[in-house]
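Because discrete structure vocabularies remain unfamiliar, we reproduce here a specimen of the format, pairing a chain with its fold in token form:
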Amino acid sequence: MKKLVVGFVLTILMSSVLAYMGAPVCAEEQQKRTIKLITATFGSTAYLVAQQLATEVNRKHPWLRINVIEGKPNNVHELANKPNLRINTVVESATYTKWAVGKGMRPAKAPYHGAKALCSMAGTLSVPILTNDENIKTLQDLKGKTVNLFVKGTQGENTISALLKHLGILDTIKRDYLPFKPSVDAMIDGLIDATVSYAVLVKDNPMKYSPVSAYIELLESRKCYVIDIPVELMREASKATGIPITPIKLPAGSIGKGIPARDMTTYCTYIWMFVDEGFPEDLAYEVCKVFAENLDALRKTSPGASSLAIDKLATSDLTAEEYHPGAIRFFKEKGIKIITE
């Protein structure tokens, strides 16, 4: 009888060991995995969102860790120039930069086509062209004027240059390439007639935009007007140059009191998280998942993040083929539609 009991106990113990060995590893026991998130410059919406995302994830996620690294406004070139980053790095960037890197434009050292999108990261930026001259109503009216096209090589500069070249007036314009504050000072001092500016979408319905802080000073100091850019012109210039130009609506008063004076259109940029096509699918899925789970906290970081919404995480100028498979998997799971504008 004693031998029978001992044998029975040993059988139970052996069964338990085998069952434990065959059981899946629980989340708490899964090996921690760290990704790098290269974001925009300190203080930007993308930087603030990235830091908050890392805080939330590193505090409560059982195995994912995020290490935020301050970068530049657009960072796809980091994946292009440094293959060693591609397996564990997420970068903040704009759709335009993905296109430019694909052409091998600086700072990319060679054409790179491996970037795949995860999801929207920091909302949508409109690019209004501001002027102090009420007689300048269209881009054609800039002929012979002094215009700040923004920093060379940026989306703002390349896009407005493409539009003016398509109109045949680029060579008539005296061009400056000033960043935010210097361009505002030049406008206030009357040294330039118009400038590229930026305003982030903060509210979808009704649409409202918050100008980048430097331009708030301009709007408060001088009477400003927005130049209307017809959608058809943007489509024609995009087709002629290959540069992705996405129109966006600027309702009357959406930027400031009486600015613009009526409904207009200009172009915009979407801010995204991109990874290399070889980035692990499970990690891509998890990054999208934790981003969506922490939207409430992320929306509080900046006015520019307030328009983030789960149903808009795949709304942009990207096609379905430009997303990472891990992102596609997450979108399907949550019923998020991929909308190409």
Remarks:
- Confidence is low (pLDDT under 50) at residues 1-28.
